[in-house]
Design a protein that fits this description.
Elements: H1 3-19, E1 33-36, H2 54-62, E2 68-71, E3 82-86, E4 100-102, E5 108-112, E6 124-126, E7 132-134, E8 137-139, E9 144-148, E10 154-155, E11 163-165, E12 169-173, E13 179-180, E14 184-186, E15 196-200, E16 206-208, E17 216-218, E18 222-226, E19 233-234, E20 237-239, E21 242-253, E22 257-258, E23 261-263, E24 266-276, E25 289-291, E26 294-296, E27 303-305, E28 329-334, E29 337-341, E30 347-354, E31 363-367, E32 372-373, E33 379-382, E34 391-397, E35 410-411, E36 417-419, E37 422-424, E38 427-433, E39 439-440, E40 453-459, E41 466-470, E42 481-482, E43 486-492, E44 496-498, E45 502-504, E46 510-512, E47 515-520, H3 528-531, E48 539-546, E49 551-556, E50 575-580, E51 584-586
Parallel strand pairs: 1-2, 2-4, 3-5, 4-7, 5-8, 6-9, 7-10, 8-11, 9-12, 10-13, 11-14, 12-15, 13-16, 14-17, 15-18, 16-20, 17-21, 18-21, 19-22, 20-23, 21-24, 23-25, 24-26, 24-27
Antiparallel strand pairs: 28-29, 29-33, 30-31, 30-32, 30-34, 34-35, 36-45, 37-44, 38-43, 39-42, 40-41, 40-43, 46-51, 47-50, 48-49, 48-50
Protein name: CSLREA domain-containing protein
Domain Right handed beta helix: 123-290
Pfam families: Beta_helix
Length: 591
């Protein structure tokens, strides 16, 4: 072949390549973009119309030949996603600065093909800063499906979410200032009982956001874990995400983490909501703020400082999880307003409560409105629309950003309790006197013209002693008058109405002594476990006299099965006998 002919052939061939008349398809070699054209997990060649594998594409980007990896929709159709089976040899890490792997508009599934369950098998590892991973589906990696180790990584987007199924860890964010948004994460608890949705081990990471930026996590053992076991991490923001059917904590804040903000998330069907590790070394897990979240179907505590599953007693000194900030106390709740006390200057958020009798694990379902700030001595008040019979709880957040556990529940009252006339039946009656003033006892009761009561006894609380009035034995009388609001035993021969009636707008506390005490309950009527919740740990038994049958009806201490209870309501203005193990004050519910 002559030199002149060879030169002509070279020029024609070069022109064909430049104009697209031969060589690789334009989509496979567009400037800055390398297009995956094969589902194989082999070394491959890029660009190539049918042999550009993901491995080869990552290598091309790492070498500086391109900045974005996309997928040929003809090979990876969105309507019928194609699978790249990743074998036991890991994919090469994506190391280039600002690189993007974009599966949007295509259907791409990265699936583990490793047969070993003993050795964790990871999916995709990203170490370069500023990387973006979106529009992909990851399945079945026993290790981490996606590891974002470089700074400023972006995982997912509202327009092109990633999907993760059955991963040991769906997303691990180890680099600083990463963003994880719009991803869907699910796991089968039967095959992966310890699965973690998102693991944060870098500082200033944002998980979620408003609207479609939220991440959805379902079926894992832990929803989101923030952990600084190796390097301390701080200032994570977990916002707007949804959690469902998580067997353990939906959000778990472990050793080495601090300053996490958890706001506007929806927690549903979780083992627990937000758990803060109790460790104090090398530093306590504190400065964590929780606000505007909703909770439903929480099996443990919705907020658990110390990971012990029980509400912490107030007054524990720091250091500790969130500084052991004490939960607030709601002291009065009526349709006209809510009042309470907390730490001075603390921010208070009132929630409608998911309530079970006794309130040991009550939690807030939804906030009633924006937080309010307590005054210089810790008092707060909230104007909120609530109805009698609803239950409320509250959170407090101090100046350092530490949020408390949910408070003890408070029942919304009508605002007042009215104790009126009392009906006596023939036989013994255990009732209170609600006259407007003391009633002096004479020789006959209620009067000499119509005597109907032959004996009146008043117990001396905490002792087996009684003061008494006996109609037939003046010399034996040690009781001279009936006092309003006090309880008595009346022995009646005929039916009789004790006139009276007074109204109070506040519950009347009663000081109880060890042993048996006669008690008039002046407060809101409620289940005994709620009405007597202030006696927690000290209540031995409570009983109510039934004048119609002349027998005791017993409730016990609240731990027995419901079917054994002789009554299921502590009624306002009624009288009871209460046995306690030590001196304690009964605080009735708000009327």
């Amino acid at each position: 072949m002559s030199a002149r002919f060879g030169l002509l052939l070279f020029v024609v061939t070069l022109a064909a390549v430049i104009t697209g008349g031969g060589g690789w398809p334009p989509a496979a070699r567009a400037a800055g973009i390398v297009t995956v054209t094969s589902t194989a997990d082999t070394a491959g060649t890029c660009p190539h119309p049918g042999n550009c594998t993901l491995r080869a594409a990552i290598a091309a980007v790492n070498s500086g030949g391109a900045s974005t990896i996309r997928f040929d929709p003809a090979i990876f159709p969105a309507a019928a996603p194609a699978v790249i089976s990743v074998g036991s040899s890991p994919l090469p890490p994506l190391t280039a600065d600002g690189a993007t792997i974009d599966g949007s508009g295509s259907g791409v599934i990265l699936r583990s093909a490793s047969a070993s369950l003993a050795v964790p098998h990871d999916g995709l590892r990203v170490t370069g800063p500023g990387a973006t991973i979106r529009g992909l589906t990851f399945e079945g990696f026993s290790g981490a499906c996606l590891q974002a180790e470089g700074a400023n990584a972006t995982v997912g987007s509202p327009a092109a979410p990633n999907r993760f199924h059955d991963c040991g860890v769906a997303i691990r964010v180890a680099g600083t200032a990463g963003t994880v948004a719009g991803n869907d994460i699910s796991a089968d608890p039967a095959s992966l009982p310890d699965a973690i949705g998102i693991l944060v081990s870098g500082s200033n990471v944002t998980i979620g956001g408003a609207g479609a930026a939220r991440n959805a996590v379902e079926g894992t053992a832990v929803g989101i874990r923030v952990s600084g076991n190796t390097v301390p991490v701080a200032n994570a923001v977990i916002e707007g995400n949804s959690f469902r059917a998580v067997s353990g904590p939906c959000v778990e804040l472990l050793a080495g983490s601090s300053g996490t903000t958890v706001r506007g998330n929806a927690f549903e069907d979780c083992g627990s909501g937000i758990v803060v590790d109790p460790v104090t070394e090398p530093a306590p897990v504190d400065g964590n703020s929780f606000t505007g979240n909703t909770f439903a179907g929480i099996r443990g505590l919705a907020i658990d400082l110390g990971a012990d599953g029980v509400r912490n007693p107030p007054g524990q000194p720091p250091p500790g999880p969130n500084g052991w900030v004490a939960y607030p106390a709601i002291t009065r709740a009526t349709p006209s307003g809510i009042e309470g006390t907390t730490c001075p200057g603390c921010r208070v958020e009132i929630y409608l409560a998911s309530h079970t009798p006794g309130g040991q694990t009550d939690y807030g379902t939804a906030p009633l409105g924006p937080p309010v700030t307590a005054d210089a001595i810790g008092r707060f008040s909230v104007a909120a629309t609530v109805s009698p019979g609803q239950w409320l709880v509250a959170l407090a957040t101090d100046a350092e950003g530490n949020t408390s556990e949910f408070s003890r529940p408070a029942r919304v009252g009508s605002g007042a309790v009215v104790c009126g006339n009392v009906q006596l039946l023939p036989g013994w009656n255990h009732v209170a006197y609600f006259g407007s003033s003391p009633l002096i006892l004479g020789d006959a009761f209620p009067s000499a013209q119509s005597p109907a009561v032959t004996a009146i006894y008043k117990a001396v609380d905490g002792t087996p002693q009684y003061r008494r009035w006996l109609a037939a034995t003046p010399a034996g009388r040690t009781l001279a008058a009936l006092e309003p609001g006090q309880e008595y035993w009346f022995l009646a021969t005929t039916p009789l109405t004790l006139p009276g009636g007074f109204s109070v707008s506040f519950p009347v506390p009663v000081t109880l002594q060890p042993g048996w005490n006669d008690v008039v309950y002046i407060g809101g009527s409620a289940d005994p476990r709620d009405a007597l919740a202030s006696l927690e740990g000290k209540l031995l038994e409570v009983a109510k006299w039934d004048a119609a049958t002349q027998r005791w009806r017993r409730f016990g201490d609240g731990t027995a099965p419901a079917w054994t209870a002789g009554f299921d309501l502590v009624e306002a203005c009624a009288t009871y006998q209460v046995q306690v193990s030590e001196a304690v004050t009964l605080q009735p519910l708000q009327p």
